[in-house]
Write a structure and sequence with these properties.
With about 325 residues, the protein is of the alpha/beta class. It has a domain of about 210 residues: NAD(P)-binding Rossmann-like Domain (Rossmann fold, 3-Layer(aba) Sandwich), CATH 3.40.50. It has twelve helices and 13 strands. It has a seven-stranded parallel beta sheet with strand order 3-2-1-4-5-6-11, with helices on both faces. The mean pLDDT is about 95. The protein binds nicotinamide-adenine-dinucleotide.
């Protein structure tokens, strides 16, 4: 994976960073980069999504919106907070929108409040470019396009952005919501509902057939996790406020991703076709120009390279050559 040395070097001035969801897929890659830069990292994660213990200066196993988390932040006094903790995706939130708001949105607001009270001067929060824009008329979608989520998950992410900006303005804290594309790469476990890349790698390596929901022509902006971790670091290092896409500006169909992974597996296999999932948007493609201007960030790993790296990582995990 490529490094982001200029950002890492200047992060030395931002010595203490708290990362919620730091044990998770995107969080663990980001924490690795922060630690490599000599930053003191407090990870707050409730391990609701099982993952290995991350390397961190300090870890706390609690809900990020809890009193314990607020007390830990007050003690740790982070210069900046990266909020990645979130439960459930589009389908989970659709089944129980109120429960999703209680579990994810309420915890997020409490976390923003606690971070500001602890004196953090920078808040960066994970949002979702794949759901915020709804069925966007113009692709690649820009941040200036109207947010029109079609799902409870997207609505909650948009609400988080609105709270983040409001609380930041009120308290003089700079805030940035990062609207990620469809993030994939090593360490994604594929146990959640999303993650077609991880799930397909598992199925192929376990001798099963890949499964596609719908006709496979739905597109996503597949963004490699190493690039997303770089964007997180760059965002922590910046003072820009607002929203920025973290995507590639390229759309790839799910059918093409599955075909590329079958190619990496060297297998000949039929594909199982399953009914399309509800509440999913048809096409996603995120314009990354604002992130380039604001954060000097550009994705470095294209889809062919990223899928190859990811497939090899899963193969190695399963002890395959
Ligand atoms: N992976 C993607 O494609 C993608 C796309 C868009 C946005 N996002 C967002 O990025 C963030 C990170 O996603 P990820 O893919 O790394 O997911 P993940 O499930 O691997 O990581 C999330 C982590 O947060 C923890 N967590 C959940 N709720 C918590 C809470 N209330 N308090 C403390 N910890 C809690 C989980 O245990 C997990 O370790 C999430 O906000 C997610 O919505 C991810």
């Amino acid at each position: 994976m490529n490094s982001v040395s200029p950002n890492l070097v200047s992060l030395a001035t931002t010595k203490r960073i708290a990362v919620t969801g730091g044990a998770g897929f995107i969080g663990s890659h980001t924490v690795d980069r922060l630690l490599a830069a000599g930053v003191q990292v407090l990870v707050i994660d409730d391990w609701s999504h099982p993952s290995p213990e991350p390397a961190a200066t300090e870890t706390l196993r609690v809900d990020c919106g809890s009193d314990e988390a607020a007390e830990a932040l007050a003690r740790f006094k982070p210069n900046a907070v990266l909020h990645l903790a979130s439960k459930g995706g589009v389908q989970v939130a659709a089944r129980d929108p109120a429960g999703h708001a209680r579990r994810s949105l309420a915890s997020t607001i409490a976390l923003y409040d606690a971070a500001i009270k602890a004196g953090a001067k920078r808040l960066v929060s994970a949002s979702s470019g794949g759901t915020i824009y709804g069925d966007s008329q113009k692709l690649p979608a820009r941040e200036t396009a109207r947010a029109a989520p079609l799902s409870a998950y997207g609505a909650a992410k948009r609400s988080e952005e609105v709270y983040l900006a409001a609380l930041g303005k009120r308290h003089g804290v700079s805030t940035l919501a990062l609207r990620y594309g469809n993030v994939y790469g090593p360490r994604q476990d594929g146990t959640g509902e999303a993650g077609v890349v991880a799930i397909t790698c598992h199925r192929l390596l376990d001798g099963g057939s890949p499964r596609i929901f719908g006709d496979g022509m739905q597109t996503r902006d597949f963004t490699f996790v190493g690039d997303v971790a770089d964007a997180n670091v760059a965002a922590l290092n910046s003072r820009r406020s607002g929203e920025a896409n973290v995507g590639t500006g390229r759309e790839t169909s799910v059918a093409d991703v599955v075909a590329m992974l079958i190619g990496h597996s060297g297998r000949e296999t039929p594909i199982e076709m399953a009914p399309a999932k509800e509440f999913e948007v048809r096409r996603v493609c995120l314009d990354p120009q604002r992130a380039a201007r604001w954060l000097h960030w550009r994705p470095k790993v294209d889809i062919a390279e990223g899928l190859g790296t990811t497939f090899e990582w899963f193969a190695a995990q399963k002890g395959r050559p």
